[in-house]
Specification:
By secondary structure, this protein is an alpha/beta fold. The protein has 14 helices and twelve strands. It has a single domain, classed as Alpha-Beta Barrel (TIM Barrel). It starts with a helix and ends with a helix. Bound molecules: flavin mononucleotide. Belongs to the dus family. This is tRNA-dihydrouridine synthase.
């Protein structure tokens, strides 16, 4: 248990965090908002994984001006959390108390082709713990550029993009995909299966279709559950064997090594996060507008915000 004895927090990729620990909270990608200061803020209050705003891969890989404008980070922005591992593995059973774990940072990229996606991923990879492919942006300009929600019905393109990053950065590198559900769920099924067979490390599912606005359509947790079950039925175990250092003890924890899924949509409080996880079977919960409205909203419900105010 060298990492624990040395006092260094464990450093795990996003899919490993989701595999090893229940109740992982995630800050959604938000154009204009989920930049460094906001990410650093929510990371102080039990948001374990944070995500950059969507960055255009083509421009990012071509221009250092775009890189300077679109992405900043520092060594302080990730939080350190005290988490109790799920203990399914026999080595861990009954042995594990809470461990100190470093939060993770994900860079979300928008791309329509494999090469720019791989190029941008490679450039940003030294500074983040994983990259995410945007398959949900519903804006007309994005759709006509064949990025974002356009990809919801392009499973082969998504597959090729994931494969390109995996072959560039290695099988263990975290490549996630953030999707919306489709009005025809067979398209969601095909997309999820293609992504997973290409090696996707985790899938985030926003429970609205590309024509449903957040303001007027409540999230459809049933369709998220459908996507979660499609992912689980693939039986793929990308989390297994990819944990580093002492973290191998908790890898293949509660998720059984299965590729984890994350539910997104209308999560405003800790209770909403718990409810969404229970209703859909997803391992993690992602919030956008909830965190924007109140960056401490998740821990506020659990009382830990007050704990932190008193003791830090
Ligand atoms: C201001 C704002 C910016 C957003 N930018 C992005 C983005 O860059 N990439 C993305 O995948 N989704 C983006 N979204 C969608 C959110 O990540 C999320 O999927 C959606 O808001 C539903 O979650 P919520 O109900 O918790 O708000 C954005 C949402 C908001 C409100």
């Amino acid at each position: 248990m060298a990492a624990v004895e040395s006092g260094e927090p464990w450093r795990l990729a996003p899919h490993q965090l989701l595999d090893a620990f229940s109740d992982i909270n995630i800050c959604a990608p938000m154009v204009r908002y989920s930049k460094l200061p906001f990410r650093a803020l929510v990371a102080r209050y039990e948001t374990h994984i944070t995500t950059t705003p969507m960055i255009l891969a083509e421009e990012f890989s071509r221009s250092h001006h775009a890189r300077d404008a679109d992405f900043t980070t520092n060594s302080e922005e990730r939080g350190t959390f005290s988490l109790v591992p799920d203990q399914n593995r026999s080595e861990a059973k009954g042995k594990m108390d809470a461990v100190q774990v470093r939060g993770a940072l994900v860079c979300q990229l928008a791309a329509s082709r494999a090469k720019p996606f791989a190029d941008a991923s490679q450039l940003v990879s030294p500074f983040v713990d994983g990259v995410d492919l945007n398959c949900g942006c519903p804006q007309p300009w994005a759709y006509s550029e064949q990025i974002g929600s356009y990809l919801l019905r392009q499973p082969e393109t998504v597959r090729d993009m994931i494969r390109a990053v995996k072959s560039r950065l290695g099988d263990g590198y975290c490549v996630s995909v953030k999707i919306r559900v489709d009005s025809d769920l067979s398209n969601t099924d095909t997309l999820v299966r293609n992504a997973l067979h290409a090696g996707a490390s985790l899938i985030t599912i926003h429970g609205r279709t590309r024509t449903q606005a957040s303001a007027s359509h409540p999230v459809n947790l049933e369709s998220v559950r459908f996507a979660v079950e499609a992912a689980q039925s693939c039986g793929l175990q990308t989390a297994r064997g990819t944990a580093n250092g002492d973290a191998w003890i908790v890898a293949d924890g509660g998720a059984g090594g299965r590729v984890p899924t994350v539910v997104n949509g209308d999560i405003w409080t800790l209770d909403d996060a718990v409810n969404a996880r229970v209703q859909t079977g997803a391992r993690g919960a992602m919030s956008a507008r909830g965190l924007l409205a109140n960056p401490v909203s998740v821990p506020l419900t659990s009382g830990s915000f007050f704990w932190k105010l008193q003791y830090t």
